[in-house]
Here is the input.
Amino acid sequence: MRARSPLVALVLLALLGDACGSNHDKTSAAPRTTTTRTSAATDEPATASPTTSARPQPLADVKLELTTVARLTQPLALAVRTGDDALYLAEKPGRVRRLSGGELDPTPVLDISNLVTNSGEQGFLGAAFSPDGSRLYVQYTDRGGDGRVVEYTMKGDRADTTTRRELLFFDDPFPNHNGGNLVFGPDKMLWIGMGDSGGAGDPNDNAQSLGTLFGKMLRIDPRPSGGRPYTIPPDNPFVGRASARPEIWAYGLRNPWRYSFDRSTGDLWIGDVGQSAWEEVDFLAAGSGRGANLGWARLEGNHPFKGAAPPGAVGPIYEYRTSDGCAVTGGYVYRGKQIPGLTGAYLSPGICFPR
Here is the structure.
């Protein structure tokens, strides 16, 4: 599917968000589906998750109709809030908008456009609510071109800007590969996807270095402790390891633009944007992936890129050639009820370019 306009991307995002619900609203009713991954070292398929007889029908047989729900400026993220039926939509220039009952609130939930650089891959990048809905977390590129993760306390349907509290600052030397997605996982921890900081081919080798937060999946408890504005979960894989950042859960990523947890199984799906040849979707089954190396920039997908493949690298569950014309963005496993034929299917819209 070609994304013909920002509106089309928003409509699809709203559909998936409504279908998938809150990431921390887990159910066990829907069955797990068959998936396979390819090892980074070989082309042999390996089972990525248990199989059942329940599978989605052929996707070519599923009919979708898109409906306009709102008109926004550069919409790029969606968040849901516990106890609230509204959808919260982020606009790249620096605003969060509330859509309820089919009506878009004219007053932004949050407007920090005066703090945001909106250019190219820079801008307001992600938003997530705490599991109890009392706090809003956002990530954006500031006026100096650096990344920030910030917390705001909610007062009614608005973020109180006087409660601003900064959790993380990323001194970013390049304007691209910023990641920026924020998700509270089934574990109620805040997950942060960070790109390798940019520059073609990861020139600073950030993704393979455990001494930097770039090119990583990060996992923190956003409540302050120990002199930090957040708490390091004690079961993070690199806690206590010299020269390694304890916030890291997995590494070897180029630009994990969007990722999500399957609300039925807890599995983590990551859309990692490729360099010039291969786009990939990474899969970490629930309870696994602790300390996983996903290969970049030694590998692009399953293919050699720069240097030798890292020992034990976890290959993508799916890859396709960038020459197909679409950059992967990441998506959701469908667990809704309105389109039974999609149950268990991973839906990932792509950003497609004219050839």
